[in-house]
Amino acid sequence: MISVIIPVYNCEKWLEACVSSLINQSYKDFEILLVNDGSTDGSEAVCKSLAGEHCCIRYFSKENGGAASARNLGLDNAKGDYVAFVDADDTVKRNYLETLIKSATEYNADIVMCDYIKHTKDKSFSFSQPIRAGVYNKTEIEKELFPCLIMFDNLEFPPTISNCVCLFKRSLLESNNIRYPEVRLCEDSFFGSVALYNAECFVYLKEQGLYNYLYHPTSVSHSNTPEKAAARWKSFIKLNEAYKAYFINNNFDFTMQIKYNMLYFALNQLSYINGHKLSIAKHRKAVKGIINDKNTIQALKGLKYPKVSCKLKLFIFLIKHKMALLYCICHR
After folding, report:
1. pTM score, whole prediction
2. Where residue 225 falls among pLDDT bands split at 50, 70, 90?
3. Which helix (H) or strand (E) holds 45?
4. pLDDT digits (tens, 9 = 90+) for 156-202
5. Which DSSP symbol is given to 156?
6. Which residues contact 307 (CB under 8 A, 6 or more apart)?
7. Is pLDDT at 222 greater than 80 in this prediction?
8. Rounded to the nearest 5°, which phi and psi values hold at 171?
C-alpha cells in the first residue's frame, strides 16, 4: 500500500533508529526502499544488514548525486499505491503511516500532510503551517493554496516544503510525471509545489506532529564551506528556471511568487557568503556576483516588497540598487 523511500548518505549513526521507527509502525502494509547515495562511511553495510533482517526492505545503491536523485531512483522502483519520504537521520511516530493512510483512503486524497517536531540538542518544538486544517477539494486548493503554492509573501516556503510530512498518491506522481529536479538544495519545495498544483484533494492534519526532524549541524543542508558556494548558487538558478518553465504560463499568475522565490535564493546565498568572514574586498566581490546576476536583477524588477522586517527590506533595497559595499558594511 505504501512505499517509504529513504535516501541514505553517510548516516550510519542514525539509520538503524530511523528504520526501527518504521519497522515498529502500527500500520504494516508498506515497503521500505533504502537508496544508498554513494555513502563513504559504513552506511552501505548497515543498509545491507537491515535488508537482510527485514523482508519489507529493498536496497538500492548508486553513485553520489544528492537526495533528489536518490528519491527519484526510489520513485522509479516504488510499488505502493502511496509514497512517503523519510530522511535517514530522522524518525517517525509509531502511528505516522496509519494516520496518513487513514485520511488518504477516507477522502481519496492525492496528498495528506501532517506536522513535524523539530528536535535540537537542547529543546523540541512543533511546527505547523499557516493554513487551515482539514480537507481541500480542487476549488479550495486553487483559492486558498495557489496564492502560497511557491512562496508566501513573507518569504516563507510553501506548505508542502517538507515532503517528509506528506503522503503522496503514486498515480498523481506518475500521471503528471512528477520527479525531483536533480539539485542539492530545496528540491522538496519544487516537488511539493508541483504535486499540490496537480492534486484534486489535499488533507492537512494540522497539529499532528507525526514526524521527528532531528537537527544535526553537520548534515548536508547545514554544512557551510566556501567551496560549496558556486554549487549552491548553480542549484538555486536551476530551480528558478524550473519554476519559470512549469508555472509562468498558467491561468493563475505565479509571477510574484517566482520573484519572491528567487529573491529568497539570493538572500540565502548572500547570507551564506556573509558567514565566511572574508576580507572586505573579497566580500564585496562575492556580493556583487550575486546582485549583478541576471536572475537576481530579473527577480527584483517590478518586485512588490515582501512582508518582512524593515531591516530585511533595507537589505533588499541595497541589493536592488546594487550597493554592494554598503551591504557588506551593514553585515560586518
Report:
1. 0.94
2. low
3. helix 43-53
4. 999 999 999 999 999 999 999 999 998 988 999 999 999 999 999 99
5. P
6. 153, 154
7. no
8. -65, -30
Burial label, 257 (beta-carbon count in 10 A; 0-12, 13-18, 19+): buried
Statement: residue 221 has pLDDT above 70: no
Q: Enumerate residues 6+ apart whose C-beta is below 8 A from 114.
A: 96, 99, 100, 165, 205, 208, 209, 210, 211
Enter the DSSP assignment of 144.
Answer: I
**Cα–Cα distance between 299 and 320 in angstroms, integer?**
9
Where residue 42 falls (left for φ over 0; alpha for ψ -120 to 50; beta otherwise) is alpha
Cell numbers placing 261: 522565490
C-alpha cell at 22: 518504521
Length of the chain: 332
Shortest CA distance to 282 belongs to which of 328, 331, 223, 230?
A: 328
- What is the distance between the alpha carbons of residues 85 and 67, in angstroms, rounded to a whole number? 11
**109-156 residue pLDDT tens:** 999 999 999 999 889 999 999 999 999 999 999 999 999 999 999 999
Closest CA to 54 of 7, 92, 18, 85: 18
- Is the model's pLDDT at 219 over the cut of 70? no
CA 319 to centroid of chain Cα atoms: 26
Identify the sign of the CA torsion 182, 239, 250, 252. Answer: positive
What distance in Å separates the CA atoms of residue 265 and residue 242, rounded to the nearest whole number?
Answer: 14
Give the integer Cα–Cα distance in Å for 118 and 95: 17
Neighbours of 84 (CB within 10 A): 27
